[in-house]
Design brief:
There is one protein chain. By secondary structure, the chain is mostly beta strands. It has one domain. 14% of the residues lie in helices and 38% in strands. A five-stranded mixed beta sheet has the order 5-6-2-1-8. Strands 4-3-7-10-9 form a five-stranded antiparallel beta sheet, with no helix packed on it. A hairpin with a 2-residue loop joins strand 5 and strand 6. The longest helix is centred in the N-terminal third of the chain and has 12 residues. The radius of gyration is 17 Å and the shape is elongated. The chain starts with a strand and ends with a strand.
């Protein structure tokens, strides 16, 4: 996950989803039509339409709170997919409209499928990034969700200021 910053505000979020062997094998078999071990442009578009775009109804399992309010209505502005070591990898980004100012209050991001069909897990390291410039007063925190985020196993909180 990467926080995309511009003018000290979070203007978007970028995600890299790496899928398990089971889901990958089924999906690759369904969408790598020419069986060459790579996804071409048309195959990526079919995969997106068949498996990813329907997640828009659930906000792509992305949950964001900024300044105490929940963001709603995400649209994907970048999407790609590829096969790495026989595993499916999907990359996408969601703009935040309006951009969130972490100086006005924490920006909290979580991935959660409340129906428990998809289990999101962060790698032990290297999963959090920043695109743009982060003020020295900004800090990330990862902890079990509380309050409105209760049930979210590891929301990421970005807080800036004193």
């Amino acid at each position: 996950m990467a926080f995309e910053l511009e003018d000290d505000r979070v203007k978007g979020l970028a995600f890299v989803w790496r899928f398990d062997e089971y889901y990958s094998s089924h999906t690759i078999r369904s969408y790598d039509r020419d069986r060459d071990g790579a996804l071409g442009h048309a195959e990526i578009q079919e995969l997106r339409a068949g498996t990813f775009d329907p997640l828009g109804r659930s906000g792509y399992h992305v949950h964001v709170w900024a300044s105490g309010r929940r963001h709603e209505g995400y649209s994907v502005d970048r999407f790609t997919a590829r096969i790495e070591q026989e595993r499916l990898v999907i990359e996408f980004s969601l703009p935040l409209t309006p951009p969130a100012d972490p100086s006005d209050g924490p920006v909290i991001v979580s991935l959660l499928d409340p129906k428990n069909v998809v289990d999101f897990r962060f790698p032990t390291s290297g999963f959090l990034g920043v695109v743009g410039e982060l003020k020295p007063t900004c800090k990330f925190r990862i902890a079990r969700g509380k309050g409105e985020q209760a049930g979210h196993p590891r929301p990421v909180t970005l807080r800036c200021g004193g």
